[in-house]
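Risk register update: the risk that structure generation would not scale has been downgraded. Supporting records follow, first protein first.
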Amino acid sequence: MKKIKTNAARLLDQANIAYELITYEVDEEDLSAVHVAQMAGESVDQVFKTLVLEGNKTGNFVCVIPGADELDLKLAAKVSGNKKAEMIPMKTLLPLTGYIRGACSPIGMKKLLPTFIHESCLAYDFIFVSAGQRGVQLKIDPKDLIKVVDAEVCRLF
């Protein structure tokens, strides 16, 4: 079996941050974080999804929230210094971040975007985020994730 190394994993290696790569069976019909949690056998509260938004003042930013929860766009706009914010169109995800839907990692985007992570992450010793490839998750200490992407911890729903 060949060893998977994603760009996100390489960046964590360079920063000497501990993580584990968790693989799971991909279902192209269901790329939701809830499904990922089921396939990986993990709590959906600890499987976080990465959402990329565009604010009307600051431009693009990232929100990382638990997989089963819905982002509050008004709260996201407020914490990011915008009056309004909306999800970016799917067709701009790859050119902007270097990642595709269902494999967008908060780590290793083409450029570091302002990142906001839901405060519930701090309740856990580790959380899961995409490793930047469908079928691969990063198991990481949320404090390390916050440090590596320079995230602000806040309420997002």
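Supporting record for the second protein:
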Amino acid sequence: MTRIRFQQSLEDLKENLLVMAGLAEQAIQRAIEAYRVRDLSICDLVARSEVAINRMERDIDQAALDLLAMEQPMAKDLRFILSVIKINADLERVGDAAKAISDRVRSMDQLPLVDLPVDIPRMATLAADMVRKSLQSFIEADAEMARTVLTMDDAVDAMNRSAYKTLTKAMEENSVVAPQALNALMIARSLERVADHATNIAEDVIFWVQGADVRHHKSVQQAAKQSKPATN
């Protein structure tokens, strides 16, 4: 494979990944809209998009593996292909999370509407923003933008913990709302996973652009703080 053909293949790989990213991002937006308006027809769209996402995941993985086998790329090109493979897997799981949310919406269809002490749309907006920003950092090969995604994850984690606390309390105090609260709790958990996948994508962008492995950055920072000697 000539260098020009190889570079074109890398561009094609990137374009296909971005198409898949668009499907995954749309699936999350649709799933949350289905939750907001309780529309099962939107859940059907999410289910169909999952099929397309799964098919694209297989195709992208195969294309990336073919490039690795035929060209044996080095340095940044190698990091790019490896990052595409990992981002591909995270996007597929974002699609899975969207499907999980839409399944919860289906199970809530016959339940009466109740006012729950949790702001699912707000949590969804933040998680979706993380996905969008992580993908933008990939498009622009912008490691600094990717690093900002890492700092956003704490907010989603905090919202998930708060949702768990308030919803379990609501279930204990009023069994009538228990089914709705349980579904909302699982939706919050799915959104927390979406944020985790966005974080993974951002980490992979940093690895591709800078060659830096920033996985487990939280545990590293926490360990550094714990090992830091106290000052008087």
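Residues 118 and 162 are 8 Å apart (CA to CA). On this basis the risk owner (M.S.) recommends closing the item.
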